[in-house]
Design a protein that fits this description.
about 400 residues; mainly beta; Neuraminidase; 2 domains; seven-stranded antiparallel sheet; five-stranded antiparallel sheet; 3 helices; 26 strands; about 10% helix
């Protein structure tokens, strides 16, 4: 059987690109069922014919679907703080969300680099990584990473408990971000033709952001092992006087998931701050009933559906979903995520809010009467400032 397969593949070698593990894949999948050598060779011929003639070049099929570490059940809901270190060294969490990762930005001439640190369940702290991007899955047991310096052509899935890569996905186009679907079964990676985080001098005291180099995105299905590319050029700026329509002047225009995972969105610099598409890139209206925290992938609606987070600005406010009536005001700068039905993870300000850039994460009640400091205050304008990523626990 092995000889027949080897001879068949030798004949095709100069004509088609056969996946390196195709024979091993077929043998492994058929190991439970006896089959004759001739039948197996014919099956392999048919498989290669489908691969050559029926699959687009953008589809990659790894040998096996991926099994992820189990999520904690029930999920923890305790409050965890680190008000002594900036960036934090210990887990920050409250209710249903935790700081799963954070990045520190630095300038390298025209480029803005992000250095990522990822939560480590073994130490209950954070560990700096060498990856271009990281994103933790819901449950904080697995992470998606981009292997590269600033961009990368390889996305990996990591077991956060062992720090081992469970699977690599090689991609044709470079990607600059990767995010998990809400159910933790897919990855969305935004592709760029060049690095998007650039700042160029446009005078002695001003900077210019070059046009975004976004070209599209990949959806990686971890259950099937398939990775498919879709074109989606960047949203452009508009000239003064043109008809109002969504636009985006930023170089980085990373895509995100709808709350139910059935659509994706691209960010705008306008209101509404998201434009939605089907998974294959067709424009669609925003999903009915979905509300988001401002400029965020996180739901703005409380877990019980009663209340909705308001926008940025001191003081912030929370309204009733059904009536729009103000349910409470909070002396914070931004509302980020619902810890539970009565408390919100927010960006609070130091002292009497004399400096809006001197702030830190807090837990605040809907009526604003209770505030718990979660992270140390820091000046976001200074070197070493960090930016958190909130993930469901």
């Amino acid at each position: 059987m092995t000889r027949l397969l080897r001879e068949a593949f030798d004949e095709w070698a100069d004509e088609v690109r056969v996946p390196h593990d195709l024979a091993d894949r077929a043998l492994r999948r058929r190991a439970w069922k006896p089959v004759g050598a001739a039948v197996l060779v014919m099956a392999m011929i048919a498989a290669v014919a489908v691969f050559v003639g029926g699959q687009p070049e953008s589809v990659v099929r790894p040998a096996d679907a991926l099994t992820l570490p189990a999520r904690p059940s029930p999920a923890p809901t305790d409050v965890r703080t680190d008000t002594e270190h900036s960036p934090p060294t210990k887990l920050i969490a409250a209710g249903g969300y935790a700081v799963s990762a954070y990045y520190v930005t630095s300038r390298e001439q025209e480029r803005v680099r992000r250095t990522w640190s990822l939560y480590d369940p073994r130490t209950e702290g954070y560990e700096q990584t060498s990856y271009a991007w990281v994103d933790a899955a819901p449950g904080l047991q697995a992470a998606a990473v981009i292997d590269g310096d600033l961009l990368g052509n390889r996305v990996g899935v990591m077991d956060m408990n062992t720090r081992q890569i469970l699977k690599w996905f090689d991609l044709e186009h470079s990607v600059g971000s990767v995010v998990w679907s809400p159910d933790g079964t897919k990855l969305l990676a935004t592709a760029y033709s060049s690095y998007p985080d650039l700042r160029r001098a446009d005078g002695p005291s001003t900077q210019r952001v070059p046009e975004s180099p976004r070209i599209g995105y990949y959806i990686i299905d971890l259950q099937t092992g398939e990775s498919s590319f879709h074109d989606l050029p960047a949203m452009k700026d508009i000239e003064p006087g043109e008809d109002p329509r969504p636009f985006n002047v930023n170089g980085r225009q990373d895509l995100g998931w709808s709350l139910d995972g059935t659509m994706i969105w691209e960010p705008t610099a306008t209101q509404p701050d998201k434009v939605f598409h089907t998974l294959d890139g067709q424009p669609r209206e925003a999903p009915e009933g979905e509300r988001y925290a401002e400029h965020s992938p996180i739901s703005g609606t409380s877990p019980d559906g009663r209340l909705v987070l308001g926008g940025s600005g001191l003081p912030t406010k929370i309204t009733e979903a059904a009536t729009g009536r103000v349910a409470g005001q909070q002396r914070v700068l931004q509302l980020h995520a619902w810890a539970d039905d009565d408390n919100v993870i927010a960006l609070g300000c130091a002292g009497k809010c004399e400096n809006e850039f001197n702030a830190g994460l807090v837990l605040v009640s809907v009526d604003g009467s209770r505030t718990t400091q979660l992270a140390a205050n820091f000046d976001s304008n200074k070197d070493g400032a960090w930016r958190w990523v909130l993930t469901p626990r």
